[in-house]
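job 3f2a | input accepted
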Amino acid sequence: MRWLIQLPLRIWQTRRTNVSCAVLLSFALIWGAGLAVRFAAGQVPAGPAIVAGQLDLRAHDFRQAGSIDLEGDWQFYWQQLVLPTARLHREANGLTTGGGDTAQYYPVPATWNGRSLGEQQLGGQGYGTYRLRVLLPRKFTGRPPLALRLTSASTSLRVFANQMLVLERGQVADNAAETEPALQPALIPLNEIDDELELTIHVANFEHRRGGLWAAPRLGATEALRGERARGLSTDLFLCGALLIMGCYHLILYLLRPADRSPLYFGVLCLLVILRVIGTGDRWLVQNFPGVPFDVYYRLEYLSFYLSVPAFGLFIWNIFPDEAHRWLMRTIIVAGSVFGALVLFTPLIVFTSTLTAYQLITLGAGLYGLVIGIWAWQRERQRASLFWVFWLLLFGAVVHEILEAYLAFLAP
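job 3f2a | predicted structure (412 res):
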């Protein structure tokens, strides 16, 4: 039994270089494969386009062609919470409410920040109404039961389907005092819908730096959407299980040999990545712990990112001490600590505004990691080659996450 307990330490002591490189490569491959699966699961074939707030799916076969993301120009009422009408009446310049207010068109998915709507310049805080008319195949044609999947909106929303309230997340209001934020993905059955669907979505945000529909609603067969959600959650849990094993293994190594801190830093990094995985994507954390306050949830999400950079910086500094410049590494560590403190001690609207700056720091730190890898390779360090593979995969994943955060692949 004693031999079994000491086995990881013996491996680490006798073949530390090979074990370190193998673990680095395994971490990168698992993380890269998980991101690839998550990205592929989120892709759907291009379907009919939304034109002037209307989508014609009468010829769409939901069984064969699959689900469709409701991306395009929805009609939009800024700073108005418009109730659904019996029909959408068209005019040459847009669609009108019963009160005569004219809607303009706004892309989905997209945030409000920095965009213009006519002569108005939108900000991240405010409220508005999105509306879309969808023409569907009739039920008697063999159309499967349909559902709507919503993953992300900032930060409270209310959804109507043909004048029926089918979902409310948080409390939508026209002022900060009455608005209550919430964040939880939803799958909405549309069993009563026949050949026409009028979607009306109210969104309000006074908490986060970015407002709007971040992700397009997805319309599809109920069973297909449930399968997509199950596969996404399974992928996240697989990633977390693999990272948990690696993280615990390295933390045990540190307890057995505390003089070497690289296993400690790597183990902490694994735990932070786990927190990131379950808090994003299909949001396992929110779905299984709906009682977590909105503010706490976002602090955990940001901390998992902000603290990962200094944790990984300390790991690199430990395995390549001669190549990592002391003051640059200290700068990265101090920056991560300062930004982490902002997450802990400032309001949500303040620390979410620091994300862009920290993403730039992260990109700079990532590029410096590549430089360290070059120097280590030139000096023929034993870990340099596999470190390069590991770092390219991981840094590519980080760049993808940053671009995805800004809707780089979705926003027009």
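job 3f2a | The chain has two domains: 2-41+227-405, 54-216.
job 3f2a | closed
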